[in-house]
């Protein structure tokens, strides 16, 4: 949509081919239906928040910034607000209203949209010893075109229309497609019993770390919110961690060996020493109660039986009988609650796709293919991806705008 709008505003005749019966279906489900439009961070920070080839986007980010996007929405009559973590949302909390801004602009510019139209092949001819696009073959016949922007999305959430068609089309034209993997995706755990006991529990203000047991190195650290599920873990910090984990060396081998640990610091504001002091104070006040009744002020109700079990301390033991060694073990557990990671949920459950058209084969200043003249790329089809927080949508706007300029 952004590419079509930009191309039309720059004097080109534009036809938008849409495989589905309506536009922007993936946009509608972003931010749990609220649409995390972008981030308020400086554009330089966007590159830092893009572990998947962030530097490639430097020119695109300069061409079309988060402020440009906010201004675009404002011109269409939609105001935005900033929430925790620099996240920008529409004031209405409705992704539908963001989509309306795009469709309103498309209509205003009289851009022709063909729905239920799937591109089967991109047609090319040899010109000056190079391939040049001349049109497309669709399920409704052939169409001529001097330039084509491929903005088909990735392979995540296929019900929205992103079923990986773009990868096939690009590959047919000689482009390299890097490994397609799920990113910003929940993680499955070997500790299924523990996760099922805690299913539905959302933890806020915790510190998470992904650790390689073999090397004792941390792959990723984050602070914020996470969620236990029947298969493992999810939530904002976990989704962001998956973007790093998917790129970790020999990851599949490490996961099979059960070498990847998620450690959760349930009390990140307190050092082990301070946490121990707090537990001592709590225990003093209820010293005649049983151990199982000592956590009301310290932990969510659902977590108490799991922590008791993992601590190895008898649940019925009177608190005044708990030894210093047992208390230290409890402190260690609260500061390092371990969940063994088994792997990623399927790509169909991923928010975005890691991998895609190799960036070495795309001109970063124009988004034009280096292999086929007149072919441009925008969005998730390219091998770029970011953390959660509005960054991936900004990639869509910025690459869409740059591709839409249709520069040679």
Please state the second-level CATH architecture of the largest domain.
3-Layer(bba) Sandwich
> How much of the sequence is in beta strands?
15-25%
Radius of gyration: 25 Å
Number of E strands? 19
Number of domains: 2
Task: Classify the secondary structure makeup into a structural class.
Answer: alpha+beta
- What fold name stands as the CATH topology of the largest domain? FAD/NAD(P)-binding domain
Strand count, sense and barrel status of the largest sheet are: 6 strands, antiparallel, barrel
CATH top-level class of the largest domain:
Alpha Beta
Contiguous runs where pLDDT drops below 50 for at least 5 residues = none
- Enumerate how many helices there are, as a single number: 14
- Summed over residues and divided by their number, the pLDDT gives a mean of 95
Strand line-up of the largest beta sheet: 11-14-13-12-15-16
Helix content: 25-40%
